[in-house]
Amino acid sequence: MSVQEFVDAVVTFVRANEVWAMPVAFGVAFLESFCFLSLLWPGTAILIGISALLAKSGVQLTVLWPAIVAAGIGGSFGYALSYWIGYYYKDGIRELWPFNRNPAMVDSGQAFFDKWGALSVFFGHFFGPVRAVIPVVAGMYALPQWQFQLANIVSAFLWAGGIIAPTYFGLGYLLGTEHAP
What is the largest CA-CA distance in the chain? Predict the structure, then answer.
């Protein structure tokens, strides 16, 4: 099954089962933000597809906002678990897949973290190339929990809203199914 076929299957499932929009948004965002799976998981494409589907079907904001919240929580949890993996394994993280196959990934994550500190956690949610490694590096460096979680939670919700809402409102406007914010 190709990536596009997989994305289509998930979006089709949500189309047939709108009540699953929240749990699917949570799961998709969690996997998109989890250190190992984010390299393989087409989470952003799935969230955009779900958002377009919600706009096209004309569902009310009572479905959209909970989906954004669920995606924000899922993204936060994925990053938090990645942090704890980095905190536990420290420099041994380089022995685990996928980092053992591409050690430069950890090096570039460390350079990014060295430059931006706790802000790198914030930026990481928005930039795919560092998304997989930044929370792990933050854990390796033992970034204080409050700094990590503040950057993580704020950016996860901004990321979720930034992926889902523009597609929903933009496509809704183009299709004439405008929704009031």
Answer: 54
The answer to whether 37 and 135 have CB atoms below 8 angstroms apart is no
Radius of gyration, alpha carbons of the chain = 17
Q: How far apart are the first and last CA of the chain?
A: 37
Give yes or no for a contact between 138 and 86, defined as CB atoms under 8 angstroms apart.
Answer: yes
Listed by start position, the domains of the chain span: 3-175
For residue 18, the tally of other CB atoms under 10 A from its CB is: 15
The answer to whether 123 and 116 are in contact (CB under 8 A) is yes
**Full-model pTM:** 0.85
DSSP annotation of 38 reads: G
Cβ neighbours of residue 104 closer than 8 Å, sequence gap 6 or more: none
* pLDDT tens, residue by residue, 50-88: 787 777 766 667 677 888 999 999 999 999 999 999 999
d(CA 22, CA 14): 10
Q: Cα–chain-centroid distance for residue 132?
A: 10
